[in-house]
Amino acid sequence: MNEIVSRLIEILTLEMGVNEALLRLSTTKREAIVGNAVSNLDKIVREEQALTSKLADLEKQRLQSCTAKFAAKAYRIPSSVTISDFIKVGSPEQAKEITKLQEQMGQLIANLQKENDLNSKLINSRLEYINAMVSSMDVGQPSNMYGSGGNNSQDRRPKTHIFDSKV
Description:
Blueprint: H1 2-34, H2 38-74, H3 83-89, H4 92-136
Helix pairs in contact: 1-2, 1-4, 3-4
């Protein structure tokens, strides 16, 4: 059972590293959003996708190699196995390590969520600004000028749009 717990610690440590890299990228992403650095933002998003894929692979490994083996030995359904179960069966050193990783991972994920929420708000703010600018440039609206006789004049110029469609 200790080898399963050791493998869990190894995978959790790798997941911590990936999540730390995601947090660093989220901070860099915020700076790119604020600085309007679109090319950097594109690069960051691609890096985030690669890290997210790596995290999904690690999670799959954790489920297959740790949880399934533990469930088989403990005669339980794999979906019912928790980190606390591994803490109970591991050595005291392993229990301390898992508890430490669990706490660090929780804090890291909370920080990552906070950073992602801020980035989402910044992006939405930028999109609102862009939509407002596009709307203000729409020259296809009818003229509000009055002609002779007090009626609205008909603008004889062809209606052209600076942009054919909104982004």
